């Protein structure tokens, strides 16, 4: 009797279903008997169950529901309007209208006034249209979108041709012509990746950076937003314009000035200097109280009046302390000398330089810059204000026709005069002499001996 009742109930249910044309849903068990075909799109079932569990909410002021055939599948489409939104975990996607594909919001087509808000990472993206993919965890924005990043009181604005943002990774891939703008500079390049959790933007394809009186370029540029730091990899170069006080023709300019105001303006007049700084890798960091700049690998600083080379040149204390290491060479064209050694330290505030590790000074012809003599010692100091260089310890001097030794020597740059002291000796034409002081003029190949001349030997053959 029970079997007859069960059969009757089953037939009644079947008749009801066919009479009302209701689609019976496919039930998928725990063993996933009905597996999705590989040809099905992303909006079909997926094996990534972790991404399926992503909490998504969506809504709006108006809702329209319809059925559509999408990639061969009959799907429910919900059209949201008037303050439409989708939330992907802590990220909120806003638009004037959103088409939600599937009840689980597997795909969302965002149309008009698109705004993606990631408050946790301080990022806001703005575009005219976009596509949200729940399974991939991405939102793709087209038609020149803009990313605005605000964190720790700093704002960075990035515009490009298109954006793919990975919502859970807080990573943004920017394609096409990329422009990064901050309060201090602008960066221009093509294709970039923004790692927001690391506060780093990477730009490839030889981007270039503009700031006040400065232009930077390299093969790869990384900008650290929070620190305001920059790294340039591969053929890094800085082109900088600075203004320095000029002393030449100052008196003549004063004579031509007829008013006190004109005289004052002439005294304050500065000369425009163009400097280029190149190398393999540049690192620039902005800290709370000072900045740090380092050029590593074939570092080369060029100005019209000087050249500076080393394996590494490092600037600290807001460019007030400069340190150079390995194969250091400094050429002063104006005063016609070249310094070289293994380590150089320059304190700009004190106007003091220290050169060590086999230091040498080469004395040059002022017109041709050809070598006229050289000096070697244990270490060399230079004083900007006096325009003097002091060599200490085992000093050896060579000119075109003579050699001299002593304990220390002072080089007066403006006079091209070298004063050797501390048991100095001079050898010329086989004759060795000593004196209290020996004064040499390297460019003229002339020597003056004072304070007790003594001939130590005379090997000259008659």
TrEMBL record:
Tell me a GO cellular component.
Answer: cell outer membrane
Query: What protein name is recorded for this chain?
Result: Organic solvent tolerance-like N-terminal domain-containing protein
Show where the Organic solvent tolerance-like N-terminal domain sits. Answer: 367-444
Which InterPro entries does the UniProt record give? LptD, OstA-like_N
Q: Specify the species.
A: Leptospira ilyithenensis
Keyword Electron transport on entry:
no
Task: Name the lineage.
Answer: Bacteria, Pseudomonadati, Spirochaetota, Spirochaetia, Leptospirales
Q: Which domain of life is it from?
A: Bacteria
Among PANTHER family, the record links this protein to: LPS-ASSEMBLY PROTEIN, LPS-ASSEMBLY PROTEIN LPTD
């Amino acid at each position: 009797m029970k079997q007859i009742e069960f059969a009757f109930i089953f037939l009644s249910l079947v008749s009801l279903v066919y009479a009302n044309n209701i689609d019976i849903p496919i039930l998928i068990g725990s063993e996933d008997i009905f597996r999705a075909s590989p040809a099905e799109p992303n909006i079909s079932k997926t094996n990534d169950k972790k991404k399926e569990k992503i909490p998504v909410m969506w809504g709006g002021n108006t809702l329209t529901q319809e059925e559509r055939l999408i990639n061969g599948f009959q799907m429910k489409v919900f059209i949201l309007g008037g303050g439409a939104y989708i939330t992907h975990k802590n990220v909120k996607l806003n638009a004037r209208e959103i088409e939600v594909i599937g009840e689980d919001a597997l795909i969302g087509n965002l149309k008009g006034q698109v705004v993606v808000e990631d408050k946790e990472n301080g990022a806001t993206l703005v575009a005219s249209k976009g596509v949200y993919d729940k399974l991939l965890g991405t939102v793709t924005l087209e038609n020149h979108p803009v990313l605005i990043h605000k964190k720790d009181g700093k704002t960075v604005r990035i515009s490009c041709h298109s954006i793919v943002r990975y919502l859970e990774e807080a990573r943004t891939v920017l394609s096409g012509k990329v422009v990064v703008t901050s309060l201090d500079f602008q960066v221009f390049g093509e294709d970039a990746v923004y790692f927001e959790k690391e506060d780093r933007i990477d730009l490839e394809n030889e981007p270039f950076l503009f700031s006040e009186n400065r232009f930077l370029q390299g093969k790869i540029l990384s900008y650290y937003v929070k620190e305001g730091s920059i790294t340039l990899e591969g053929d890094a170069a800085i082109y900088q314009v600075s203004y320095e006080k000029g002393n030449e023709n100052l008196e003549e300019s004063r004579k031509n000035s007829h008013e006190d105001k004109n005289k004052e303006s002439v005294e304050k007049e500065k000369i425009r200097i163009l400097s280029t700084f190149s190398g393999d890798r540049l690192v620039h960091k902005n800290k709370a109280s000072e900045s740090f700049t380092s050029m590593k690998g074939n570092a080369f600083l060029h100005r019209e009046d000087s050249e500076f080379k080393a394996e590494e040149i490092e600037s600290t204390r807001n460019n007030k302390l400069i340190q150079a290491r390995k194969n250091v060479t400094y050429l002063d064209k104006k005063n016609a000398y070249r310094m070289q050694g293994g380590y150089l330290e320059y304190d700009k505030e004190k106007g003091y330089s220290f050169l060590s590790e086999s230091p040498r000074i080469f004395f040059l012809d002022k017109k041709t810059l050809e070598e006229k003599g050289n000096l070697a010692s244990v270490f060399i100091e230079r004083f900007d204000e006096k325009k003097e260089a002091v060599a200490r310890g085992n000093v050896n001097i060579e000119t075109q026709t003579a050699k001299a030794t002593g304990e220390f020597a002072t080089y007066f740059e403006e006079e091209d005069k070298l004063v050797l002291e501390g048991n100095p000796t001079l050898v010329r034409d086989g004759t060795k002499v000593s004196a209290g002081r020996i004064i040499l003029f390297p460019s003229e190949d002339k020597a003056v001996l004072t304070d007790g001349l003594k001939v130590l030997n005379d090997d000259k053959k008659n």
